[in-house]
Amino acid sequence: MKFGKMKTHRRNRLMLVAFLLIGSGTAVSLTLTALNENINLFYEPQQIVDGEAPIGDLIRAGGMVKAGSVMRSTTDLKVNFVITDMKSAEVNMMYDGILPDLFREGQGVIARGRLDPYGVFVAEEVLAKHDENYMAPELKKMIDAKKAEA
Amino acid sequence: MWNWLHKLGSPKSFFAISERLLPWFGTLALLFLSVGIVWGLLFAPPDYQQGDTARIMFVHVPASILAQSSYMMMASAGVVFLVWRIKLAEIALQCAAPIGASLTFLALVTGSIWGKPMWGTWWVWDARLTSTLVLFFLFMGIIALRSAMENRASAGRATSLLAVVGLVNLPIIKFSVDWWNTLHQSSSFSLTQKPAMPIEMWFPLLLMVIGFYFFFFSVWMMRIRTEVLIRERRADWVKRLVLTMKNKRDMKHAV
Amino acid sequence: MQFDSLSDFIQMNGHGVYVWAVYFLALGVLLLNVLRPKMMMKRFYKEQYIAYTLQAAVSNEKLKDGSGDYLK
Q: What are the pLDDT digits (tens) for B61-81?
């Protein structure tokens, strides 16, 4: 594309389109930056530990279910577990209801509920967050077997 | 190159060129899609976590990719129309909108059907899902704007402008899963990076994506061809074409 | 082949409803995208054929006695 040879009115229109795109892009990115916190669907464990999450309000918390932390009641659907960011932060969760199929230790969850004053998250709804990795069941078994050997 | 593009830009030669391309595109679309579907449903392994629900991926991922791609192509046609005022570009823009809307709808609904058993919810207002819904409204907005305006020239300009402004949404959809916390997982399918799935899943998915591309180009061409005829109906070549197609068998061939 | 029987294939380990709903919906959306332009094309040929022959008739008429202008 030779801009030098382009007719002036076409070049002007092209500039106009470019400015339009840059202008709307800037406006939208400024808005999104301003709204950044509100666009996040959930609070991470570290944010909750740091006290960034409001207490008593309906919020969402997300993290990995800590291995070995799931304790189910034998009489009803109540379940306690811990979510972690796989580093240091951990949040205790309480839930009374049916868990989704993908709820497993070591898998991600996003819970909607309220943080009580003692830092325990009382969930009203628990959603499972899948990661982007897919694996065939046989392969998974092989990997687990190798890990067990080592 | 420029000559060839100019030729493609004229409605009459587009009609002639697309007539030769269309059977190829249609056949390839059918081929890729049918092999991909059979492979995805019958031979691809289930996922170790999601089981057979992972097969929804073979529809959901290509539909989502094409929803975004078709917007990109539609907006490019809008830029060409705004700058060079090529009539065919405006026709291409109008014709891409309903196809793009239907593919975005498919991506949204299949995602929802997948989300219910796996996540535990049909819908969540996270950044990925919401920005895809915005994409759907952009397509619908272009359709609505076109039908609301009487004057063809100003409708063309208005819809092109809307399409170009809406381009801002595409990087938001793509990077939403990286920029913010979302329920939606990040991308698993990529041509440039090592895929996050076994080759037995990745390959049928690739076939489906290619098939969806051929499908999109086929139906896009079909719509543009009809629109070209309608707008050029006073031209001699259209008149001749119609009059030679008077019996029904010929008509079937023409379509 | 991942399934041992047809009923296994339909049930998909209990997730059949979701998987099949997705595939049939996709089939419907794709089919509509093909049929709609085909239908529009067919209608164009039909209507335009009538319009052209009518036009031709009118202009023939006009050649003979100069009437038919009002139809244009």
A: 999 999 999 999 999 999 999
Residues B38/B207, Cβ–Cβ less than 8 Å? no
Cα–Cα nearest to B70, from B47, B87, B93: B93
pLDDT of residue B43: 93
Per the structure block, which two tokens stand in for B210? 């290619």
B198 to chain C: which residues are within 8 Å by CB? none
Q: Is C35 inside a domain boundary?
A: yes
Residue of A66, A150, A58 lying closest to A108 (CA atoms): A66
Assigned domain for C1 exists:
no
Residue C59 within any structural domain of the chain:
yes
Inter-residue contact B182 to B127 (CB < 8 Å) = yes
Q: What angle do CA B208, B5, B141 make, to 5 degrees?
A: 60
pLDDT in tens, B37-58: 999 999 999 998 889 999 999 9
User: Taking CA C39 as the corner, what is the angle to CA C38 and CA C40, rounded to the nearest 5 degrees?
Assistant: 95
- Per the structure, the complete domain to which residue C49 belongs is given by 6-71
Nearest to B164 among A20, A28, A99 (CB): A20
Residues 6+ apart with CB under 8 A from B12: B228, B232, B235, B237
Given this model, what pLDDT does residue A130 score? 86
| Coil/strand/helix, residue B69 | helix
- Which residues of chain A, if any, have pLDDT below 70? 1-5
Among A94, A115, C41, smallest CA distance to B224 is for: C41
CA distance B106 to B218: 18
**Tokens 């078994």 identify what position?**
A141
Nearest chain C residue (CA) to B62 = C26
CB C30 within 8 A of CB B102: no
Count of structural domains, chain C: 1
For residue C18, which residues of chain B lie inside 8 Å, CB to CB?
53, 56, 113-114, 116-117
Q: Are A136 and B46 a contacting pair at CB < 8 A?
A: yes
CA distance B160 to A133: 39
User: Would residue C57 count as lying in a domain?
Assistant: yes
- Cα–Cα distances in angstroms (integers) from residue B30 to residues A46, A50, B217, B218, in the given order: 50, 55, 12, 10
Rounded CA-CA distance C17/B252 in Å is 37
Q: Where are the domains of chain B?
A: 22-183+197-254
Give, rounded to a whole angstrom, the gap between the first and last alpha carbons of chain A: 60
